[in-house]
Amino acid sequence: MAREFGGKHSPDGAPNNARPTPINKFRGKKAHNSYIRVKMLFFAPLPMLFAAIGELRAGQINGMLAELGAFATLILSAWLLRDGIRASEAYDARKVARKPAIPRKLFAAILAGIGIGIAAFAGWEIGAIQSIALALLTGGLHMASFGLDPLKSKGLEGQSAFEAERVAKAVAKAEAILTEMLIASKRFRDRALEGRVETLASEIRDMFRAIEEDPRDLTAARKFLGVYLKGARDATLKFAEIYSKQRSTDARNDYETLLVDLETSFANQKQQMLLDNRTDLNVEIEVLRDRLKQEGLRAAE
């Protein structure tokens, strides 16, 4: 029976014709959100811009200013909403996170109501009461459709607010560095290398989740989140600059070797943190058993 070639001398390098475990490129990724509804809100106010031009040609300065004011307010509302949704998604993706400093989605709803109110009263010449009612309805529908911002920070049960805040800050800072690295990798125009960077990013995000599970791991992982991650970002930025100008094979091989070493280092550190946690649990169990014996009780075997 014929079989697929893949021995130890094949490009995959798998010994004894064993196929290497394929890398799941979608691990740690979320489905892409196209923000179609939000994008539509950027186009919805365009009729007000055209109406303002018509008011200007007719010499109606007040009407023009009202239409332009409504247009600008609604555009600002859509912009705040887009950033608010992204902030909420980042908040939901983490186990430890601070609430957004600015409630963008709430402000977007308020601005949407104000924009429609201005357009209704000054542009469409609807009565004041009807305009206010329409503004309130718009704001309410906006909040019902897109929701509100997270109203409180979330941490871990049994952990102090200080520990939760410290972990949230460290993970947010490391996530920003990792995002810079991923953005720089898009300049490679090399799908294989981009995939290796994404694989490394998945390992790093796994470490983020482990730290959020147990903030005590933050001290041990600080070198990886600081020195190693910053070094990986800087190397990626430098390689992207070089590789985009000249497709150097030597530079590519050196960078790919660096990625493999970093991936191994982060994976080993994550495994070490899990082992340390298991050791801590065993110690706590032994201490509890000794305490029960001292109290004249017996721990269940």
TrEMBL record:
Keyword annotations of the record: Membrane, Transmembrane, Transmembrane helix
Q: Which residues cross the membrane?
A: 35-54, 60-81, 102-122
Q: Where is this region: Disordered?
A: 1-26
Amino acid composition bias (Basic and acidic residues), ranges on this chain: 1-11
Output this protein's name.
5-bromo-4-chloroindolyl phosphate hydrolysis protein
Q: Does the keyword Hydrolase apply?
A: no
Q: What Pfam family is a match, any one?
A: Halogen_Hydrol
InterPro entries found in the cross-reference section: ChloroindolylP_hydrolase
